[in-house]
Amino acid sequence: MSVLQLSLAAKSAAPALAAAGSQLKNKALFSIADALEESISDILAANQKDIQNAEAAGISKSLIDRLSLTESRIRSIADAVRQVCNLEDPVGQVLGGSVRPNGLNIRKVSVPLGLVGIIYEARPNVTVDAAALCLKSGNACLLRGGKEAINSNIALISVMRKAVGAVGLPEDAVSFITDTSRNSATEMMRLSGVLDVLIPRGGAGLISSVVNNSTVPVIETGTGNCHIYIDSSADIDMAANIAANAKCSRPSVCNAAETFLVHKSCAEDFLNKVKPLLDNYSVEIYGCDITQSILGSCVIPATDEDFSTEYLDYKVAIKVVDSIDEAIDHINKYGTRHSECIVTRDYFAANSFSQRVDAAAVYVNASTRFTDGGEFGLGAEIGISTQKLHARGPMGLSHLTTYKYIISGDGQIR
Amino acid sequence: MSVLQLSLAAKSAAPALAAAGSQLKNKALFSIADALEESISDILAANQKDIQNAEAAGISKSLIDRLSLTESRIRSIADAVRQVCNLEDPVGQVLGGSVRPNGLNIRKVSVPLGLVGIIYEARPNVTVDAAALCLKSGNACLLRGGKEAINSNIALISVMRKAVGAVGLPEDAVSFITDTSRNSATEMMRLSGVLDVLIPRGGAGLISSVVNNSTVPVIETGTGNCHIYIDSSADIDMAANIAANAKCSRPSVCNAAETFLVHKSCAEDFLNKVKPLLDNYSVEIYGCDITQSILGSCVIPATDEDFSTEYLDYKVAIKVVDSIDEAIDHINKYGTRHSECIVTRDYFAANSFSQRVDAAAVYVNASTRFTDGGEFGLGAEIGISTQKLHARGPMGLSHLTTYKYIISGDGQIR
Lengths: 414, 414
Hints:
homodimer
């Protein structure tokens, strides 16, 4: 089937999903979870093909690790699906309403978006995760994964479609594009009027390609060039702990810090305190002139490009600044509007930074690593939005809905 | 200045607007309103040039009427600006928050979008209206109006910029593109990373051009192919009144009805009842075979194109349907997700229609003409969104904001 045919089939399944109540949707989710566990050997066999292809293609170990499924990983994926059942149904919430002076009774009610498209890369668990969240929020989905995981994805999708069909919902509610060519991604981006939203999950290249080419409304996710600013009044121990945690605890994720900005008055104290913490992880330091003069020849001179780069690695850029204003200007210039932090004891500095930094999440005295649906109490997470429309920051189930107004009258005319 | 230079100047004014409190923003709005009234003769002189150019170009009378300003129209525009002062400030609202188990204190706070782009057509009052709503919501704006109103717009913008500057806010917060070529519109659509949102206000051609070409997030507005479905159980007098009102009270607006769908069991009663009401406005009827057989030769045979057309005129398409299911399918196929109505006495029909019709506003027993920011109690309206992300239906000041999370800690790491 062509991408257009697949999308139309998925679209035609959307009304049945929208009309399904929580009980039926949860039944489908349990059905998926059970079916995944019953199909472990088939899924592992398919995954084995992907791993062999990846090894033959000389793909990096860390990518192969992200691609690999094991029995216990499949059981975890199934458990995650069961967890989604416990979340509150985001559909049918009455978000507001009033009786107008003319007697019209207006209710604003949450409804599914309709058909959600998701383009993602290597990890096969995203296939199940995304389908489960779309299903719970009453949406049909059209998924397109990376070519590395194609065999695993086809196996997972086949299991999920049968499980959804077994409870009486249309199998096309979980649709998947098997064509992994660039062309199929481009076609997906032009499905304006069929897809209600397109969510890219992956690296900066994928996301900018979707933003530049899509006629479907897009939710940008996950590019995080995050900063820790150490104010002149900072508690230096706290600053070093937060900075090292934000950089080192999991450098490959979008909420990890990439640049430290340090007020000149505490630069020497801070840098000497944080250096051994970074050394524990063999972090490479790209620093400005002052950083070089304080920490010596271990510092690689930083270029403008370093300040623009999301390293996603054990590397950090460091710049000494003259003032909080310089720090805020730097962040608003180089940041990706994801997560930003100030470490300070100063009440006015905390407020000024919180107000003037343009980002989804602004932290005072805490690590940027907390930007996460679970940490924010949203339950599940479909991604972290770095755009301003519709959703900003961690996106939960409610962000997979829109609303409609239902207006009841007794003959009102205008 | 080029479109890019103008946009960067406007962008640099955004932080000052975002930081301005309600008092300062209201002072700027009063300053604009007063300045408009003081400049009536200059504005009218500029408007006169536009009218002369329009007459020389042979532009239609109704378009010239929309273009024309008078002293009383300018005073009304100024009053509308003063009304915006009375609306609640949408910025700084605490939308939610909690203290997490680890002690992190999370607040979700509304903030301005930043720089709002608006592309619109002939009416010069939109220039003032849009600038006032952006200002109140703490946004800088970059406006681009139609070439017919260029002299009026330049005069209005000049007055507003001086008034904004007079209260100490940057004049570039109200920016305007004087280049009315197609090229400048295209450039505006490619300002990804500078414009935070682009809102097209105008005809279907403008809107689809923006949707297909913009890399900036778009809010689609205002295309309304709206339907009135007369159910078998409808009160026929009520149905005729609602249908005639939705069609005739103001056919040029997006919430006017374009098609009536009539259940076969009441088709004869309804059509004979509504016909004289339509005749009062000399409405042309494009009908299906059964409509033709009931109303006779005055009915022009309807084609598929009639059901797809937003007439915006004293024309209506009428189709007799076999069931509510056929009506809902027709609406979901031909509708533009704007406003849809069922007239019925049947409880289950009302619920089924409300749930299954995919539209921003679904009416039971009331005219579609009520889809309007004022009628919904939103105060002001920046447009009526027909998309599902961010805003759906009438958009008030709150839809010109996004939110940020402000997270306060005392050293938390993860």
